[in-house]
Specification:
This protein is of the alpha+beta class. Helix content is 61%, strand content 14%.
Length: 449
């Protein structure tokens, strides 16, 4: 996306000096969407953010599963089959294979947990911690995507400004070539090597313009891809420094401690793992429950046994309810699962031990980069103004015949390079603010989204 101006530039008299300012009305399709609008679109439709958001939904579903463990668990079975006739009692019976009829049986069981020694409640606590952690991780992913989107947007603006700069200089050189060739034929005042330099510089700029055009097109498609914006193109606007209210390094560090989602994610993640550890340990304790069951059978071709002590699976209804205790005796497995969750929690603690200093270093680095960008922007602005004066002075001297062609070309080259440097410095300034916003966990500029 970046172009390098030709080493030697030649230009006509002062009549074109006023045209040096770049044309910011490019040919890209217009759109009313600002950078803030594009970031809103990214937040709603970017696939990576949506992927992180679905992790939150998974955690919410796990919480529902944990809550459902308190609900009654019921099962029911109904079976129908043909069966041959049989009559008699518990002592004697007689089969009749020539006569058949239906057999219908059914039964149900209901279990209502009453007390689990903290197993279900710890599963619920773990799921709630996972929800909070995943929500913060979604914010982390959103911040990463926003930095990428900003970089692509500013890259598009920079590529467009550089394209316009090269296009403007190319127009000047093309006019200069025509003027120089005309003067060479009429007066012979233009030396052949000056004309060769002029044409070489023009061809070089034309080639640079192709690269700049391709860079602009790529950046435009990239920002639309990242933000999923449903527009034909991005509005062509000039790259300018983002406005912001500068704070001290310590203030930015305080903002980061209060706003960086990683801190909350790590804390909630540890809570979740600790709760899972306790839940796994609680599996070794019994589950106290209320239970009920019922079973019935009907078969018209089998003799019903009237004695309650007779086993009658064909014509009998039984049922009852009571208080029960269930034991899971796989103590070794429970211990191993609890140890696994303990290790996961300690892993997050270890991550926290280096993440906090790492975030602090990230904030400091972003702050120092911003300071450098601010100072660099002042130098670039001063350089741009000085080179502009240099070029105007040389152009005036050329118009009255006291500035040689070589000095004029050097002045034009200096003016073009300083403008190129200014564009790139504004890009660096805006990206420094974007990285600082990510580092502290909130937008530090006046950008709204």
């Amino acid at each position: 996306m970046r172009c390098i101006l030709a080493s030697w530039l030649f230009i006509c008299p002062v009549s074109i000096l006023a045209q040096v300012q770049p044309d910011v009305t490019g040919s890209a399709p217009a759109s009313e969407m600002s950078l803030g609008d594009l970031l809103k679109s990214a937040s709603s439709f970017n696939g990576q953010i949506e992927e992180a958001r679905q992790d939150v939904e998974i955690a919410r579903a796990q919480l529902k599963q944990a809550n459902a463990a308190w609900y009654p668990k019921a099962s029911a079975v109904v079976l129908g089959a043909p069966i041959f006739a049989e009559t008699g009692d518990a002592v004697h019976s007689q089969s009749d294979w020539g006569k058949w009829g239906p057999l219908v049986t059914g039964g149900f069981q209901i279990v209502q947990p009453v007390f689990t020694f903290g197993m279900i409640s710890n599963y619920q606590k773990a799921a709630e911690g996972q929800i909070a952690a995943k929500e913060k991780l979604t914010e982390v992913k959103r911040a990463e995507i926003f930095v990428t989107a900003k970089e692509m947007y500013y890259s598009y603006q920079m590529a467009n400004d550089l394209y316009n700069l090269v296009e403007t200089l190319s127009k000047f050189l093309r006019e200069a070539v025509d003027t120089a060739e005309k003067q060479k034929k009429e007066k012979g005042s233009i030396k052949p090597h000056d004309l060769y330099h002029l044409k070489t510089a023009l061809d070089d700029l034309d080639q640079k313009k192709l690269y700049a055009k391709q860079g602009r097109q790529t950046a435009e498609k990239a920002i639309l891809w990242v933000t999923k914006a449903s527009v034909a193109g991005i509005a062509v606007t000039e790259l300018i420094p983002e406005k912001f209210q500068k704070k001290t390094l310590e203030q930015y560090l305080e903002i980061a401690r209060a706003n960086r989602p990683e801190f909350v994610a790590l804390a909630k993640g540890q809570e979740a793992r600790g709760a899972l550890r306790d839940a796994k340990r609680a599996q070794s304790y019994p589950i106290v429950f209320l239970g009920a069951f019922g079973q019935t059978a009907w078969c018209p071709v089998r003799t019903k046994q009237d004695s309650i002590f007779a086993n009658d699976p064909y014509n009998q209804t039984v049922g009852g309810f009571g208080l029960g205790v269930k034991f899971d005796l796989e103590f070794a497995r429970h211990s191993a699962e609890a140890a696994e969750q303990e290790a996961e929690m300690m892993k997050l603690k270890a991550t926290e031990s280096y993440a906090a200093p790492g975030i602090e270093l990230q904030v400091k680095k972003a702050f120092w980069e911003l300071e450098q960008a601010i100072d660099g922007l002042e130098v670039a602005t001063r350089r741009k103004q000085t080179s502009r004066k240099w070029f105007i002075s040389s152009g005036m001297g050329w118009s009255v015949g006291i500035t040689p062609p070589k000095d004029l070309m050097e002045a034009l080259e200096g003016d073009g390079l300083s403008r190129k440097n200014y564009i790139e410095t504004v890009f660096s300034h805006n990206m420094a603010l974007a990285r600082l916003s990510q580092a502290v966990g909130m937008e530090v500029t006046e950008l709204k989204y």
